[in-house]
What does this fold into?
Amino acid sequence: MYGLTAEAHIGLALALLTVGALICALLAKYRKVVGWVAFAFVLPACALILYVAGSVFTGNPVGPHTVFKLIGLQTGLVVRVDSLSAIFLAITSLIAFCSSMYSIRYIEIYSDESLLRYYPFFLLFIASVISVVIVADMLFFIIAWEVMTLTSYALVVFQTRERAVIRAGVRYFVATHAATACMLLGTIILYASPKGGSFHFESLAGAMEWLAKWRPGLLHLVLLLFFVGFATKAGVLPFGFWLPETYPAAPTAASALFAGTMGKLGVYGIVRIFAELLPITRFSTSWGQT
It folds into this structure.
């Protein structure tokens, strides 16, 4: 599109959402206008992301492309969009478009609440969901995941005067950060292994292969940590105890966005770890690989 690379399309989409969040923060007091402003930024961003997803579906995967490196950690921001990522990008762009358009009129029912606590976080949440599925480095994956968690928490507790909402927000905050801690611990174990030393997905796959051969018990622990972390976000029983109170607490448009994107990213993480990073060995059959 217009001679830009796929990486440029993604960068432009994320820039639109970030700038849009800042402008919405400045215009939050103009309640009749700010919703349309947010939609004006979400629409082209979603179009760009949908274009990238469509390009991948037609046989043009993106990357891996290193945006920058962190020499001290032997890692960096790596962007990659394969078929799995493209599926979630397409879903995210369509749901974000619909939720943003619906918000324009719907959010008027919250006349006593400041929109400074809605639209900026709404746009940043969309940007974080996109970021989660395009990175191929676990350090930046977890950073994007944490941004997604914090922005979604802000949307959950949008109605600050409701005790039930605050209670649901606290439960969500604790549960999801416990899940993130599990993912972080699993990542650190892989990074510290003899075949680790980097947060790149390829390096973590090599670390898993080494652990499968020499420390299978430790790899079982790593996989359990990742499974608990992602299953909690996906709301899988028995880890989804936080979900029944949390989604209804958020405004309906945000709740629909959560259900259609964030909840599915738990499944994305499980597939990415167990179908890509975990090597196919006799050991891996115990985790469902065939």
User: Anything to note?
Assistant: The radius of gyration is 19 Å. The mean pLDDT is 88. The longest strand covers residues 62-70. Strands lie at 62-70, 75-81.
